[in-house]
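Q: I'm a student working through a structural biology exercise. My instructor gave each of us a protein and asked us to get a predicted structure, then write a short paragraph describing it. Mine is Reverse transcriptase Ty1/copia-type domain-containing protein. I'm not confident about reading structure output yet, so if you can add a plain explanation after the tokens, that would really help. Here is the sequence I was given:
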Amino acid sequence: MVLKLLRALYGLRRSPLLWQKDLTAAFAKLGLKQSQEEPCLFTNSWLTVFFFVDDIVLLYRARHQDAADEFIVKLKTQYEMKDLGELKWFLGIRVLRDRAARKLWLCQDSYIEKIVNQYGITKRDQFKGNLFPTNDLQRRKDQAKPGLVHRYQQKVGSVNYVAVITRADIAKPISKLAEFLLNPSDQHVYLVDRIMEYLWPTRFLAVQFNGTSCTTEMIKINHCSIPRELRIASDAAFADDPETRKSSQGYIIILFGGPVSWKAGKQTTVTASSTEAELLAFTHTAKEAIATQRLFQQIDLQIDHPLLIECDNKQTIRLIEADLPRLKTQLKHVDVHNCWARQAYQQGEFQISYTPTTEMVADGLTKILPGQKFKHFVEQLALVDIRSVLETHEESDSD
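A: Happy to help. First, here is the predicted structure for Reverse transcriptase Ty1/copia-type domain-containing protein. I'll explain a few features afterward.
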């Protein structure tokens, strides 16, 4: 028997695309414009809407409540929907607000509790020692059994969701462990479990965002003024992979006091010097920063200063800023990156600031830091323990 479907069903290959097209068309009819940077984000003069599958979030000011109610009514005529009220949870992320103090927090405490219970991780009130007792991670010589591989992939995937959403402090460690997804050893399994052991007592650490009035002041780093409302940092660790001699790179974008975008990874090619590695990392960061600025413009978020990217390599800064010959390199792609960065800088796309390694917030995205250096990295990320905030919200809800 052969049946012809009249509409898409959950689970089919084309269903997500068909749903995205259908919802996009519905938003267009309601006067929303799709973002060029984020295809699941839509805006008009007073409303911002984004969605993940069938979870839809509306952002608007209190004075537009009547218009928002009308928008929801129109949307309900096309889809069967449930209005859950003020946003408190989204994809396992807790959302807390303090309107009087103009603060907002994002936390994954509930999700962390879920995966810790799921994988039977020991719960301790304190985490002692370094996150990784050793940075010497060895590849397994024989092939791991399929069951071990599958279990390891599940654990890494579960922890990685925390690392990419709210916890940049574990981005580099989990990125390193992801290199062994196809053939993990007992050492790798132990280390991913250790990350979850660290997450348990720190599960209430949250990303905190402050209102614009609280963050427009400048901070001083190496005699240079950095706008606190938007910080962008780039870093690289030259030839730190002992097998391939590829370099690690990382970047972070902090908006209104909280990280909004970051990445820890390995460069796709081998470079011949630390300057080349830093240049590749900087170019990647600059492109991300420019794309983020375009997104800000599309949602009508005005940042009252040029993009300023922090770098801890003075030679890289000189190659981009100064009127000097290009970097002497036999690597064509490095030369291309150098030319692009110089051109973008000369066109005023961004500015550059030197930041010492000790104050470089992206440093913890290029290497697994020990002890006090790791604690300093967490402080740089400005992650906040929200247990007292939760207690206040629970008391107000009970009243």
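A: Here are two points you could use in your paragraph. DSSP finds twelve helices and 16 strands in the chain. The CA atoms of residues 246 and 270 lie 5 Å apart. It's a good idea to check both against the output above yourself.
Q: Great, thank you!
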